[in-house]
Amino acid sequence: MKALVAAAFGPLEQLRVHDVPDPSPGPGQVQVRVQAAALNPIDVKLVTGELRAMFPVTHPCVPGVDATGVVAAVGEGVTRFAAGDEVIAYAGAASGMIAEYALVGEGPELVHRPRALSPAHAAALPMAAMTAHCVLAAAALEPGDSALVLGATGGVGALVVQQAAELGVRVLATAAPADTAYIRALGAHETIDHTAVDTLSAARRLHPGGLDVVVDLINAGPALASPAGLVRPGGRLVSTLYGPAEVDGVAPVYVRMEASTGDLHRQAERVAAGRMSIEVAATYPFDEAPQAMRDLAEGQYTRGKIVITF
Ligand SMILES: NC(=O)c1ccc[n+]([C@@H]2O[C@H](COP(=O)([O-])OP(=O)(O)OC[C@H]3O[C@@H](n4cnc5c(N)ncnc54)[C@H](OP(=O)(O)O)[C@@H]3O)[C@@H](O)[C@H]2O)c1
Q1: What is the pLDDT at residue 56?
Q2: Is pLDDT of 248 > 90?
Q3: Average pLDDT of 84-103?
Q4: Which of 194, 264, 296 to mutate to test the pocket of ligand 1 (most atoms within 8 A of CB)?
Q5: pLDDT digits over 129-138, tens only?
Q6: Which domains does the chain have, with CATH numbers?
Q7: N or C: which end of the chain has fewer CB within 10 A?
Q8: pLDDT of residue 2
Q9: How far is the CA of 219 from the centre of ligand 1 (A)?
Q10: How far does residue 77's CA lie from ligand 1's centre (Å)?
């Protein structure tokens, strides 16, 4: 089969589409013929080696954690899936999805694809949706709360904004001018153009008493000190990146996405029913996957997901 391959840790320029052996499903695994795969920031970090201390990678490696496709074969002991089933799959850091065939375990990260969901939108969903679910659980928002979402127009942020707004939270979102109408249509009440003004000063002006929750999808390490200053006393700072145990008297809640049973299926059904939306910014044919990865890393699109089609 053909796959996108990184030979070693290093720059994205090394990525090539070439032939590798077909992956064969072991016990509890499902082999998926991939129809579409989505890109995530973690793909770039795994290829370059930025996350090598956290996630070991065996080379040559095939990137890609999110995909949708058709079950081609199942390993011993698989009971919920059979050849021909249309599925949505998340591979975790083991990756391997930007390939004609991929393996995934029969667990909460493998679900049947709702009929009404297009392959591009289905592929875009797993990591962003399951992370948004974990972020919202950590944020413990209540109706009437105020929340600032930094990185609101990205894959995770747009899903956090929609679900927080649906809960009755007053959402303040960062968005470049071209994305302001988009994020407001998803439920944001107020926006800050992070490309033109200092986000933190603007947020402080709008919410001088601080916000109940700040969801930070942008800052890592000591940089979390600035958003921490926007949290009202007793409020929460939630981050998908990592940093110190305490910043400015606030103990950030660091989210590491974990798939939970039923979550991906529930979110896929919501998108299929038109009750939540996931934006596909661009689709690239498989042989242009190396360019797609470079475009992701360079921030070519300010909102939504990049999807590779097969
Ligand atoms: N811990 C976990 O388990 C976990 C899981 C998933 C994701 N993550 C991490 O969470 C982060 C977000 O993931 P994602 O998939 O949503 O990323 P994404 O789709 O690439 O979105 C990033 C968004 O941030 C915006 N942005 C960039 N710089 C900004 C700034 N200074 N102020 C405001 N907005 C800014 C971008 O818009 P513009 O181009 O307009 O700036 C873009 O919309 C990534 O770093 C990812 O690695 C962690």
Answers
A1: 87
A2: no
A3: 97
A4: 194
A5: 999 999 999 9
A6: 2-125+278-309 (3.90.180.10), 128-254 (3.40.50.720)
A7: N
A8: 98
A9: 9
A10: 38
